[in-house]
Amino acid sequence: MSEGPPRSQPSGEKKRRTSLWEEWDTPQEHWLLVGSHRDGRERSLLLEVAARIIFPTVLVLSLYLLFAGHNRSGGGFSGGLVAGQAFVVRYLAGGPMEVRAAVGLRPPVIIGAGLSLAVLTGLAPIFWGEAPLTSAYVSMTLPVLGDVHVVSSLFLDMGVYLLIVGVVCDLLRTLGAGIEEQSPRPRRRPSG
Question: Which residue ranges are recorded for the region named Disordered (predicted)?
Fold first, then answer.
């Protein structure tokens, strides 16, 4: 049985569909390119790929430490240090450009936001006639999560977390840039 003549599609539409089908899994970022690094030094592809895989996992662990810090070991400082280590791994793998790619904001903005959140959370109880750093406790039931208990000091921990992450990123940006300027540039291998 014949299905009839094939439906005609505009050539641009057919080419676009074919192109999308063939290129759907190609990386949009150029972080897997092989060769020398942008600044002329040799790259370790294994380290770069491992850093890209480990980075989100370590950030999730740092968030767990942040949120579990009221009942178990952890908190804003511990979570911030673990997140800072994730950024150090990214820096070791790809240099300052990797840290800039991972953090959308400049480090002083992150430091200021964290410090402001921590100070405002610590001073907020004064407006309700309480002593500074007094905690409030709220319980609620959410559809997917069930019973959730939130302590106001969580916001203080979030401020400390942002402050530590901002300081680590700023140290990588400033001190790391000085170290890279002082180190001699390796010579490029002649091609051919």
Answer: 1-20
46: which DSSP letter? Answer: H
Beta bridge partners of 36: 42
Between 174 and 192, where is the model more confident?
A: 174
HSE-CB for 27 with a 13 A CA cutoff = 6
pLDDT digits (tens, 9 = 90+) for 57-102: 999 999 999 988 866 777 899 999 999 999 999 888 887 777 888 8
Which pairs with CB-CB distance under 8 Å and at least 24 residues apart come from 35-44?
36/188, 37/94, 37/95, 38/97, 39/95, 39/180, 39/185, 40/185, 40/186, 40/188, 41/185, 41/186, 42/186, 44/93
Residue 80 is predicted with a pLDDT of: 95
The rounded distance, in Å, linking the Cα atoms of 55 and 128 is: 41
The encoded tokens of residue 177 equal: 């840039």
Backbone φ/ψ region at 26: left (φ over 0), alpha (ψ -120 to 50), beta = beta
Q: What is the pLDDT of residue 39?
A: 54
- Is the overall model pTM greater than 0.85, yes or no? no
- Closest of 69, 96, 97 to residue 82, by C-alpha: 69
Cα–Cα distance for residue pair 75/137, rounded to 1 Å? 17
The whole-angstrom separation of Cα 74 and Cα 68 is: 6
Mean pLDDT value of segment 133-153? 86
